Request: fold
Amino acid sequence: MQLYIHIPFCKQKCRYCDFNSYACVDDALKVSYFAALNRELKFAAEAYSAAKISTVYIGGGTPSAVESVRICNIIKQIKDRFDCSELEEVTIECNPESMTEEKLSAYRQCGIDRISIGVQSLDDRNLRSVGRLHDAAQALDKLALAAKYFDNISADVIIGLPYDSAEAVRREASVLAPLVQHMSAYQLTLEEGTELARRVREGKVMLPTDDEVADMQDAVIDALAGQGFERYEVSNFAREGRRSKHNMGYWTGREYIGLGAGAHSYVATSDGEKPLAGGLRFASPKDLNAYIAGVNCASDFQGIPRAQIDVIDAQDGVEERIMLGLRTSDGVNGELLKGRIPDDLARFFERKGDNLRLNRDGMAVMNSILIKILKI
Reply:
């Protein structure tokens, strides 16, 4: 089983962000939140006492925006309460402006062994346009600082920002690749309700066209391949042996428990080693006060009020396995796709042992392919 811990606090909300995160939260609410989070963690450990934890991921929000003692206390609680005898990976997300040497040292000492840094761009104009609090020089300095404590570092970048071009993102990938073991290169998604969406709608910000973004994606893929990175998921690249084990768990249908406001969980109703054979997916309320009140009024994990509960039957499980598996370079067992691939889509697939996976052209139009083969 995997654990996800949500830290919803940020110094400032980025203009593109629609994640469950909050800026300028007072200290009293933070204290209440972490007390509720520890209580939920205790309940989860009691409910899943037989589970062996394989990975832990601390995300947000910006986990590095809070004191290191709070993060280390969470890690201690996990190790004290869960069976961590098979723990393989513990990741924390950080932003350059809130990373300090004290925090990095504390993370390493308490058992965190992988760090994911939100670089997003090495163009200061892009960073300012989307409300980031760091500049390119600070991001590079913090990557170098992280390397003093970690040998498993990931950098996040966003493709399709206002000042991006194919050549610019190629240079960024080439600069970052020698400094990290993993990169996530996400295409910008313009989410309704965000500050960036409003600015684009009002004509205050211009974004690249879809064709330009596709060229940028190709440029990043080629640049990272030339630096020894494997594209193992549509937006993720890793050196040999440095895939994100936690994220691979999501894409292969492993069970996970999400703790914190807005966190999602998936628990199998059959053998958890049989990916997505059927199960239950549930989520906590996003609102901080509703989450805190719900945890505090409960007497066990099952009693915590949920904002969403979905039952996944066997057929749903198969379709999710296809949808998630085709995001990866491993693909899915060919038997799952038997009779699903129309003749006009066959050119987008290739074999890998017993599996079928999307080739590079297929990855570029993945969403359209999934709509057709799953009849979404």
About this structure: The first helix runs from residue 27 to 47. The chain has a mean pLDDT of 95. DSSP finds 13 helices and 17 strands in the chain. The radius of gyration is 21 Å.
